[in-house]
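Spend some time on this chain, tokens included, and walk me through the fold:

. . .
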Amino acid sequence: MFVGRIVMKMIPLQAFPKMNSSILRLMGNKIANGVVFYSSSEVVGLVQIEIGENSFVGHKTLFMGGVSFIKVGKNCDISSNVSIITGSHEIGSINRRAGLGLSTDIVIGDGVWIGYGVTVLGGVKIGRGSIIAAGSLVNKDVPENVIFGGVPAKLIRTIGDDSVAYDI
């Protein structure tokens, strides 16, 4: 895994997305065909990722956590500077509030669009076709076909499942 991370750092940002996907596969991750994964993005810790076909992972996106799993569906767009973090801690004693470490899976459904600078925390499921507004903190499940935004993220509105453009 360590060697894979070093090689990814040496590859130009988007020049070789197929190579980036191949390196991630060699590191034990499941990366489908047609995935564009910027080499500046990172997989840190013991977390394993699965990314569905034709999905996009932008510049400096971070997948991080302990022994857990992050699944990104097909046809997803994950913008730049997104943090998808499976790890956290139990509340510890007064001597050290960050207690026992824990890590919980994250599932991102097909067709999801995650805006710039979003943070997704462990245990979250984002439903198919949903949009997460830029800068949001997602700490609870998101239903299908909705726009969520804010800190913490909350429902902004529902959206249809057709291909009609909507103003946000």
Summary: The radius of gyration is 16 Å. The longest strand covers residues 98-103. The chain has a mean pLDDT of 89.
